[in-house]
């Protein structure tokens, strides 16, 4: 008898339930859901009430998260009933989107929450992701659910949820918009002797999430036939998934796959699936939080250029995608972030510089980037 999917009666997350199970614990909120039989009236009443409450919370959440001011058309409030979403021809689709602005700090970002709201709309409308299979973690001031704040623990739980129970045909997406950094490589598994790391909202007290952990959590468990795309809009993110192969492509489109495996590193690939990472810059580079691309709203350069490229040219290949993103970013003039007023505007015009940022592509396996289409 095949596994089935049930909703957590506490947070609404879709859970994979073994056929013999009557009670299951949610990997995201750790709440316990009673999986009762159809002829058990108490179980039916309990779960019906829980599902109704979750649908109401989901409806309110959709209203709150659709308020992004961007160049992309805003989605209409998504109806809460999952039965209205047609089954995907690519199998089950799930996504974890993290946007962190680090409010009140000197290194605050302005566009990260915008990025994940735009990415959510993009996944639903461009690639048919069910709205209730997208988990969004932000430090938006309007976010009241403590489980949806992008703390280190919540991000770790969300990543485990993303791959838990995945099977052939599944399409998984991890999008992160925030700060990235590098740490000294202590286990000698990096070519450049540095680990790449993501910075949760509480990283100063709880620590960063390094690439070794990300690889172990969402790359290595990926089963045969499943695919994972990571879209990482952060500094120092070139190899943040620790994937074996990094694509080096020049301006003319010629490319080679560099092998980044080391004998001391152990296996960094998947369990048979395909993992692809599109990152904002190389490991030594920085990424920009800017309004220069949209002309109006502050966004991450990677997120904006990726969405625009796919919307402008549906069905494009990976090579064409990376080339279009680099072209959109290259030559764009940016000023000094944080300067306002007439004098500051003049300084920005005088001192404005071209963006020095090149999106990168890495993968768990080599493929022809000029023939393989980008599909989420």
TrEMBL record:
GO terms under biological process: proteolysis
GO CC, alphabetical: cytoplasm
UniProt domain Peptidase C14 caspase: residue ranges: 93-364
GO MF term list: cysteine-type endopeptidase activity
Residues covered by the Zinc finger LSD1-type domain: 8-30
Alphabetized NCBIfam families for the sequence: LSD1
Family: Belongs to the peptidase C14B family.
Protein's name in the database: Metacaspase-1-like isoform X1
Organism: Senna tora
């Amino acid at each position: 008898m095949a596994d089935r999917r049930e909703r957590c009666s506490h947070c609404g997350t879709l859970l994979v339930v073994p056929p013999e199970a009557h009670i299951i614990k949610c990997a995201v909120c750790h709440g316990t859901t009673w999986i009762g039989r159809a002829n058990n009236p108490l179980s039916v009443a309990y779960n019906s009430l829980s599902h109704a409450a979750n649908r109401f919370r989901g409806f309110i959440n959709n209203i709150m998260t659709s308020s992004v001011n961007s160049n992309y058309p805003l989605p209409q409030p998504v109806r809460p009933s999952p039965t209205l979403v047609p089954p995907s021809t690519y199998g089950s689709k799930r996504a974890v989107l993290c946007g962190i602005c680090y409010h009140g700090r000197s290194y605050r970002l302005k566009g990260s929450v915008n990025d994940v709201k735009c990415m959510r709309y993009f996944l639903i409308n461009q690639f048919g992701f069910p709205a209730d299979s997208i988990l969004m973690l932000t430090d938006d001031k309007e976010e009241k659910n403590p489980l949806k704040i992008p703390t280190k623990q919540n991000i770790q739980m969300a990543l485990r949820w993303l791959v838990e129970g995945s099977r052939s045909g599944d399409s998984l997406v991890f999008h992160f918009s925030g700060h990235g950094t590098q740490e000294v490589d202590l286990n000698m598994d990096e070519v450049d002797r540095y680990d790449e790391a993501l910075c949760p909202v509480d990283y100063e007290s709880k620590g960063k999430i390094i690439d070794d952990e990300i690889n172990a959590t969402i790359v290595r468990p990926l089963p045969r036939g499943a695919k994972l795309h990571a879209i990482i809009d952060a500094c120092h993110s070139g190899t943040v998934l620790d994937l074996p192969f990094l694509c080096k492509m020049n301006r003319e489109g010629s490319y080679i796959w560099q092998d980044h495996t080391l004998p001391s590193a152990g296996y960094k690939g998947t369990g048979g699936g395909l993992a692809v990472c599109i990152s904002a810059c190389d490991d030594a580079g920085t990424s920009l939080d800017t309004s220069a691309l949209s002309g109006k709203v502050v966004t991450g350069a990677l997120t904006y250029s990726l969405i625009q490229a796919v919307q402008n040219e549906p069905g494009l290949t990976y090579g064409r995608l990376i080339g279009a993103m680099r072209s959109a970013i290259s030559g764009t003039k940016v000023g000094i972030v944080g300067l306002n007023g007439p004098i500051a505007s003049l300084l920005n015009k005088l001192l404005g510089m071209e963006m020095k940022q090149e999106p990168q592509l890495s993968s768990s396996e080599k493929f022809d980037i000029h023939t393989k289409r980008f599909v989420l």
